[in-house]
Amino acid sequence: MTGVTDLIRDRHGSRSVDLAYAAAESAAHSAGIDIRPLDSVVDLEAVRRLYERIWRTGENNPPVTADLLRAMAKAGSYVSGAFDGDELVGACFGFFSPPAREALHSHIAGVLARVQGRNIGFALKLHQRAWAMARGVGEVCWTYDPLIRRNAYFNITKLAADPDEYLSNFYGPMDDDINRSDDTDRVLVRWRLESPAAVAACAGRLRWADAAAARAAKAAVALDVSPAGGPVAGRAGTSTVLVGVPGDVETIREHDPGLAAQWRTALRDVLGDLLAEGARVRGFDRAGWYIVDRRESQ
Predict the structure, then answer these.
(1) I want to staple 77 with a disulfide (CB 3.0 to 4.6 A). Which of 28, 70, 72, 129 is the partner?
(2) Can you tell me the distance from the alpha carbon of 269 to that of 157, in angstroms, rounded to the nearest whole number?
(3) Same domain, 258 and 153
(4) Which residues of 167-179 are buried (b: 16+ CB within 10 A; e: fewer)?
(5) If you ran DSSP here, which 8-state letter would residue 115 be given?
(6) Which domain range does residue 29 map to?
């Protein structure tokens, strides 16, 4: 039977935790997978190999090692896998952060490309949410590449996580086929697990964002995509601004690294400065727009 298995309920009787488990179970069932915590050496070695395939790193440069995952699982951190039958097709792990284990940092989550589109990543995050809430955790944080549209949409629209900080070249050089030679700029998001937006998102009600409506309401375009596919800086003098990103930056990195670098610098200058000023990302339009409310409008 598909679903969520082996979750430990530390807070029996909490209705919010029960609802979180129910949402996680429903998401796993819809995706046609089983999700379970992992702690055996065999399973954790399978996670290492899975991540190598996803990030195309090779055996000499894995995103994480099985022995580190084993130590994390033993210490009580979160390590889980999504199984399609007997095959591991996705995995996620994170560790606690201060204060006093009230927050979890979700470090890596990945799903095989051939099963993307089945909402397996969504199911993994809902499993993580239920696991965390059962242990008294109220917030999960992670980083993502703000130039990748599908990741921005998933984090901001589908999960209702809130961008909090722009981190320039956060991980330094990463030797894999996803990041290539690009700087590893990231946005840190905070997923407040019991916020109304997160509860709604976990029930399947997306946090929609409409860039066309924002533009009609006089939002300025602070960063746009030129007809040739390059970044075009605009103005950010209005209370709400639109920040665009290219359609497929991963393909750009592969075929035109110089253009990818231009996009990295442009987004760092625009979105990075806005977040540093205290602006709030209201949402992300799937057409490739961050909708950002500046401090003056809050």
Answers:
(1) 72
(2) 23
(3) no
(4) beeeeeebebebb
(5) G
(6) 3-202
